[in-house]
């Protein structure tokens, strides 16, 4: 994710102190005499089945194949030796990570283990935007990122490993998968790649809400997890438990499993004693235009400044109407007609929100060259549209139409059962018609650069100030004419701080009302859970170094952190060796101090077919 500068537009998780993200690049032996041969290792299938059917094609695996819960250096060394590596033929791997003490500790542990398996790993750090830029260009071999759910269904996670959706080659529509570069000539078995593509097609081609369609999607989702095991293209690491800490002066309702970037402060903040503005901490970000924002640092601000048609109420999985008061859906789930609430006001002098504003906003999301969130309308919803010979959307062809002053339709090319959930994503937020001239038919009242740094929405708070970069700040004021629940505070002030220790000290000094606590400063022995309400543990934390005991809440969020590989660059035995030396329970307990759960699937337990019990029994082979 999710996830902290300009996270890729499509929701990779930000690297907060509790779970900073990592990536890596490396040199590798490429061709020539004595180079390793892909697929010459054991394939990670020593689990009682070879994953092959009678015709030799991959059919699945019985359980997670890489010594789960162990530090299996011996198997790592063996798979490398079988591939031709040894003391005189070592693999060089450069680990590039987002700045984080916790992930650096894990990286050092992995490096020491891989040395015995003929892999030399160097460790470097980069800011988050730099990390993302390099992975999109393929300028890496291994990397780690995370994903937080856009909508609570397996396919939202599994699209990350659909091979066709992982090739960032700069041609055609921008993909939204992990940066695996899983091409036909990648370093993996062709039948496994085909298997993954077929299973994802099975998910996509059964969108109906019938039991039969649901069963088909579920079976394919589980099979994709097995194909992912076999390929070792991406190694799920852990599912994060989200925590919030706040002082008694704040009356706070912590967000649910969809995460803080899906919650609005007019809902989560019930009151504040002694002052009228909320003080927070923010990571860096680079744009506040909904169509060009995707990381949690900017996402939370967009949620406060803008409104979309639907909303995940306080970050839970409950989807509620927000801009709309009613809607209807065609029998084949391809046409949605929405009726907007009347009287919704934009900030400033931009007047009432109408259907024309909504049409313009969705057109920008699909057609604007500034949009970095086209994945949602095009690949997820698959909104009706025409494309030219180069794959670009023909201006004005987007399947959204105003049918009245307050009614509009959205037409999809194919059935999709989670459309309402996707329309809760902030990329679909409404902006005033014509405010930016970046689609055909509009000259624009301001440039995109001006709008993205001085935005106009209709959310519960209106933009006031933004001084970008570390040491800067973001400010938003209460919007008195907001159509929804009135904020209990007059505004929000967020200090932009990138260093996790500095963030903690800022909170420790009482400068922030609510904050996370970086893993390096977190002590699980100071946690006291007093109650669990709607799946959220609530209690206290402390005393801290300032002798204060603060309130805390924790909830499993629907996300997964992972290690992944550029499949064009990293041979399968190297990927398998990494899998063997990653001891998930140990890392969760010792590195992340218990703030998560070991991940043996890319799909989190909350949305895994059959739930938590099926998740556990599947990877354990029971």
Q: In brief, what are we looking at here?
A:
With 622 residues, the protein is an alpha+beta fold. It has 16 helices and 23 strands. Strand 15 and strand 16 (473-478) form a beta hairpin.
Number of strands: 23
How does the helix and strand content classify structurally? alpha+beta
Q: Return the average pLDDT rounded to an integer.
A: 88
Low-confidence stretches: 1-50
Ends apart, CA distance between termini? 31 Å
Portion of residues in beta strands equals: 15-25%
Radius of gyration: 24 Å
Principal-axes geometry comes out as globular
What does the largest sheet look like? 11 strands, mixed
The helix tally amounts to: 16
User: Which bin fits the share of residues in helices?
Assistant: 10-25%
Protein name: ABC transporter substrate-binding protein
Family: Belongs to the bacterial solute-binding protein 5 family.
Keywords: Signal, Transport
Domain Solute-binding protein family: 64-161, 319-615
Explained architecture:
With 622 residues, this protein is α+β, with helices and mostly antiparallel strands. It has helices spanning 73-82, 101-114, 128-136, 154-158, 190-204, 211-231, 265-268, 296-305, 355-367, 375-380, 419-422, 448-453, 500-508, 572-581, 584-591, 611-620; strands spanning 22-25, 91-98, 119-126, 142-148, 234-246, 250-252, 269-272, 277-282, 310-312, 319-321, 324-329, 335-340, 400-402, 407-411, 461-467, 473-478, 491-496, 514-515, 527-533, 536-541, 550-556, 559-565, 596-598. Helix 2 links the parallel strand 2 and strand 3. The longest helix has 21 residues, at 211-231. The model is unreliable at 1-50 (pLDDT under 50). InterPro entries: SBP_5 (IPR039424), SBP_5_dom (IPR000914), TAT_signal (IPR006311). Residues 26-73 are annotated as: Disordered. It comes from Halolamina salina.
